[in-house]
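Q: What does the assembly look like in three dimensions?
Context provided by user:
Components: four
Sequences:
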Amino acid sequence: MPKLGMQPIRKQALVNATIVEIGRAGSLDVTVSQIAKRAGMSSALAHHYFGSKEDMFLAAMRHVMTLYGAEVRGALAVADGPDARLRAILRASFSAGNFRREAVGAWLNFWVMAQTVPAARRLLGVYQGRLRSNLRACLRAHADGREIADGLGALIDGLYLREVLKNGPPDGAAAVATAMAYLDARLGK
Amino acid sequence: MPKLGMQPIRKQALVNATIVEIGRAGSLDVTVSQIAKRAGMSSALAHHYFGSKEDMFLAAMRHVMTLYGAEVRGALAVADGPDARLRAILRASFSAGNFRREAVGAWLNFWVMAQTVPAARRLLGVYQGRLRSNLRACLRAHADGREIADGLGALIDGLYLREVLKNGPPDGAAAVATAMAYLDARLGK
DNA sequence: CAGTTTGTTGATTGACGAGTCAATAAACTT
DNA sequence: AAGTTTATTGACTCGTCAATCAACAAACTG
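A: Here is the predicted structure of the complete assembly.
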C-alpha cells in the first residue's frame, strides 16, 4: 500500500489530530498513540515523521496561529479605512472558530508551553508582533496610537480568556462590543 | 517521632511545595513524589493527607487565590476614595509577588485546569466575581460603571498574560499605567 | 533486475508514576 | 495495661507511555 509522497499528508493529519486531541483533553496530556490513532496510523509512524511529541505540539501551534493569521488577513482584505480594519481584526479575533474546543485548548496550552519551551515562546512572540503591527497601523493617525494599540492587544487576550473560561457559551459579539467601547473612549469619540 | 497535630502543618507544607513544583515545571506535569520530597515527607504521606494529586492541585489553587485576595484586601484597607481604591487593586494585581515563578505557573495552569475540572472553574469564578464586585463598587458613581469594570477586569488578565509571556523581566508598573490610561479615557478624564 | 529510497507497523525497551498496603511507632484514652 | 487513634514509610501493584528497532512492502532508479 505504500504510496509515495505521503509525508505532507501524514504530517498534516497528525497536526490536525494533535489539535483535536489537545482540545479533547483540555491539556497537553495526550499520548502519541491517541494522536496517531486519530490520524489513522501507528504511533511509530508519528515518531517517524516528527521526531518527538514536542515537535508535534510545535507544529500544531504553528498551524493554529497560521489559521488565525489567515482569518485576520482575510478580514482585513475586505475592510476599508482604519476604523473598519480595527473592527475586522476584532471580529476575526472573536470569531466562532476561535471558540471551538480545539482552538481554546490550543491557545491556553500554548500559553503554558511558552513558559518553558523557547520555540513556543518565539512563535507566540511572532503572533503578538503581527497583531500589534496590524493594530498600530490602524491607529497611526492618532497621537497615542502605540499605547492604544498595545492596550487593545492585551484587552483582546483578556476578553478571550474570560469568554472561554466563563460558564455558558462564549459570546464573541459581546467581546467585540467591549473592545469597541474601549476604543471609542480612547479615541475620544 | 510521631507528634500529634501534624495534619495542618503537613497539608500546608504540601500546598506550598505543590505551588513551587508547578512553578518549576511550568506545568501540572509534576509528580506526587517530587512534591512530597520538597515538602519533606514520603509520597505515601502526601496521599494520606490528600486523597489524590488533583486534590493537592485544588488546595494549591485555593491558596494562591487566597493570597491574592488578601493582597487586594490589604491594599484596599488603606485606600481612601474610589480613585485610590482602583489604583490599589491595580497595584495589587501587578505586584512583584504575582510575577514570581510560582505564581505565574499557578495562574496559567489553573486556567488550563478550569477548562475541564469543574471545581477549578468554580474557584476561578469566585475569584473573578470578587474582583468584579470590587471594581464595580469603585465605579458605582459612573453611569457605565458596570461595563467599565468588566472591561477593566479583562484588561487586567490580558496585561498580566502579556507581561508574563513577554521576553525580559515583567514590568508591573507599565501594566498599571496602561490600565490607568484605559480608566482615564473611559471616565472622560 | 538489483539496489535504493520511502512508507509502515508490531513488538519491545526502559523508564516512570499514581495509588495501595502492611507494618511500625508514638501518643492519647479508659 | 490494653486498646485506639494518628503519624509515617518502604515496598509493591498495576498501569502507562515515549521512543526504538527490526522487518516487510511498495515504489522509484539506473
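Follow-up: The interface with chain A takes residues 25-29, 104-105, 108-109, 111-116, 121, 124-125, 128, 144, 147, 150-151, 153-159, 161-162, 164-167, 178, 181-182, 185-186, 188 of chain B (CB under 8 Å).
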